Amino acid sequence: MDNSISHSSVSALVANYTIPPQASAPVELPSEIWREIATVASANSVLTLREISRDLRSAVGSLDQANLNRINQHPNSTVVIYQSGDGVRSVTRDPETQAVMARYEDISRALQEFFSHSNDNNIRWHLAGSRSLSSETAQQTLAQDQDAEIRLALAGNPNLSSEARQEALAQDQNADVRAALARNPSLTSDARQEALAQDQNADVRAALARNPSLNSDARQEALAQDQSADVRAALARNPSLTSDARQQRLAQDQGAWCVRLALAGNPSLTSDSRQLILAQDQDKWVRVALAGNPSLSSEAAQQTLAQDQDAEVRVALARNPSLSSEAAQQTLAQDPNEWVRRDLVRNPSLSSEAAQQILAQDQDVGVQIFLR
Known about the structure:
Elements: H1 7-16, H2 31-41, H3 46-59, H4 65-72, E1 79-84, E2 87-92, H5 95-104, H6 109-116, H7 121-128, H8 136-143, H9 148-155, H10 163-170, H11 175-182, H12 190-197, H13 202-209, H14 217-224, H15 229-237, H16 244-251, H17 257-264, H18 272-279, H19 284-291, H20 299-306, H21 311-319, H22 326-333, H23 338-345, H24 353-360, H25 365-371
Antiparallel strand pairs: 1-2
Helix pairs in contact: 1-2, 1-3, 5-7, 6-8, 7-9, 8-10, 9-11, 11-13, 13-15, 15-17, 17-19, 18-20, 19-21, 20-22, 21-23, 22-24, 23-25
């Protein structure tokens, strides 16, 4: 191949070409310039092509897609030229590198829009999930992508703040896409939450129910009465569930024990009355979850759990750093199960002098080891 052709010959052609005066109109460069660029591209020189891109950028304000395609479709080109808001830019042709750039680099909006039209699904998927994705144009393109995996990645992107994009994804025919949007913490629109709360798919409603951004009383009330136990359990587990009325309803849920179990372990469960209700729950695992809840503050609930017939409940309580009831500590210090007493003696919240005196006389070797 004749390597005597260089970017300087292209520069001369561009320099001698008279650019039309319209600043905003696309520029149609003569075909001989593009033939020369394609010839230089065949030398497979990244540096040369970058220099060509710089020459074009300095001479031309905008290029039409037909001209861009002439150079980008050349089989030996190592870079792709694309139109940016401030001129012509180039990016490596290597798809693996493009995918890394789309996912992790703080790339320009123009390059985001360029990648959103890529023929490579992997590049579009990486872009859709990128936290640097800020271009609404790129988000709109990806929201309409034929590949459900790409729409799924976009729907779960915490940077998805466009209401229009959220509305489109909330109506997506793929339930997984709607569920990904429903659990997205950036979903703060009451209208979008209402639509997803009424979704026919229970998995979508459950995803919304566990979303920490779900702070609407109306939405929480609707989900607390959902016919699906999985949805109610997801809401019961949500740390944003602070309403006494919602907690009361879920604490008395008789449809499924998993709902009460989820609520019992929720750190937002701070009501003494709710805690006492769950401390008397008929299901052992509900009581175990409550006994280990770091928000367990009710003395009455602690005393009830300290006398529970199931050792696993008492062990969970003995380990809880929020164990503040001196009466409960004294009860556990006399527990017939040595594992309860061993966990109690290691609890940094052990403050009862009476309980400490009882443990000091304990004959169990494990208790004595932890007392030293």
